[in-house]
Design a protein that fits this description.
The protein has 68 residues and is mainly α. The protein has helices at residues 14-37, 43-63. Helices cover 66% and strands 0% of the residues. InterPro entries: Neuro-gated_channel_TM_sf, Neuro_actylchol_rec.
Length: 68
């Protein structure tokens, strides 16, 4: 009987995942909760969050090379 034993060690770059997944995700969730702290009639502030912050984070996520 032939037995083959293989030990695989998988590693990943933690800094890459923090900068591309965790930090933008935390910023996105925090910026979405800002709308709950605004007054209900503060429409310009809500529109600014929608038109300025969210597309910026989405384009930032798309520019990172996920396949290293």
């Amino acid at each position: 009987m032939i037995c083959l034993k293989v030990d695989l060690m998988f590693t990943r770059d933690r800094a890459f995942y923090f900068t591309t997944v965790f930090i933008p995700g935390i910023i996105l969730v925090t910026s979405s909760f800002i709308t709950f702290w605004l007054e209900w009639n503060a429409v310009p502030a809500r529109v600014m969050i929608d038109q300025k912050l969210l597309p910026k984070f989405m384009s930032k996520m798309n520019n990172h090379p996920f396949d290293r």
